[in-house]
Design goal:
Low-confidence stretches: 1-5
Shape: globular
CATH class of the largest domain: Alpha Beta
Number of strands: 11
Radius of gyration: 18 Å
CATH architecture of the largest domain: 3-Layer(aba) Sandwich
Distance between the termini: 21 Å
CATH superfamily of the largest domain: Periplasmic binding protein-like II
CATH topology of the largest domain: D-Maltodextrin-Binding Protein, domain 2
Mean pLDDT: 95
Largest sheet: 6 strands, mixed
Number of domains: 2
Number of helices: 14
Strand order of the largest sheet: 2-1-3-10-4-11
Strand content: 15-25%
Length: about 280
């Protein structure tokens, strides 16, 4: 491992992942030799792949891309069963025109970008052109018909009245497949799983505990979201209640279907197996 801390743990720096980490703090993890690194998904994806992190919450697509190097922590994900509220396509035109138009893509996540490509090709039977950009809605829409934003940036944009149509990719995927969508998982590098099994097991327990405590009482997360990101308590209660953080059989089936479509479209070389840390 390149990092001096054997168990460097990547934390997605968006509100949608807060329940997994809210109580799994550095103070809790330090006795197990672990330390949290907070970044956006695309940065965590690269850091885990390069060996700068031992384990991380990462885009589901990033797991698939490097599945031969990773293992998954059970019972942890960032998912939705329908609307997700923070993976949104903002459009100047109806979908029927956008599906063969120009779409600007955020450069902050792999799962959402490829989910959009799957939906445009397989669900809407379109063939748009894509351009990857920094997540700035106004600039993205200067030369594009629609723009994909994720995370807190998408939430803030959804609060503004810019006269745009807004399409929720979680809802679109559910209409298309009948399944929920898993956007992020927690992956461990295989060599770290072998060398630091007990420490990773302790981090896993801390994250499961954080998830359960957070969902039992959302009030601390809601207060933090209002203070840091704005919005109302009602909005954030609904937001966190809509998201799902389990990774049971139904979630796994939905993710396997996503991988299958990605492989069929050539976005992945092959459909990966889901290999779990024991």
């Amino acid at each position: 491992m390149r990092n001096e801390v054997p168990l460097s743990v990547g934390r997605i720096d968006y509100a949608n992942a807060w329940p997994l980490f809210h109580y799994a703090t550095n103070d809790v993890l330090a006795p197990h030799g672990a330390h949290i690194v907070s970044r956006i998904p695309a940065q965590l994806n690269r850091a885990l792949m390069d060996g700068e992190l031992a384990m991380s919450a990462v885009s589901s697509f990033a797991y698939a891309y490097n599945a031969d190097q990773y293992m998954l922590l059970p019972d942890l994900s960032v998912s939705s069963e329908g609307t997700v509220h923070s993976i949104l396509l903002f459009s100047k035109k109806p979908l029927d025109e956008v599906r063969n138009g120009r779409i600007a893509l955020t450069n902050t996540s792999a799962t959402s970008v490829n989910l959009l490509k799957i939906l445009m090709t397989c669900y809407l039977e379109g063939n748009p052109s894509y351009e990857t950009m920094e997540p700035d809605l106004d600039r993205m829409l200067e030369h594009a018909d629609a723009a994909l934003l994720i995370g807190d940036t998408a939430i803030h944009a959804s609060w503004l009245d810019k006269g745009l149509e807004v399409f929720d990719l979680g809802e679109m995927w559910h209409r298309f497949t009948g399944y929920g969508m898993t956007y992020a998982v927690v992956a461990v590098r295989k060599e770290a799983a072998s060398e630091h099994h007990d420490g990773i097991e302790a981090v896993h327990r801390a994250m499961i505990d954080s998830k359960n405590k957070s969902l039992f009482d959302l009030s601390p997360l809601v207060r933090q979201a209002c203070e840091q990101l704005g919005g109302t308590p009602d909005y954030w209660h609904h937001y966190f209640q809509t998201l799902k953080y389990d990774f049971g059989q139904r979630r796994q089936e939905g993710l396997r279907l996503y991988f299958r479509y990605a492989a069929q479209l050539g976005l992945l070389e092959r459909e990966p197996e889901l290999a779990f840390f024991q």
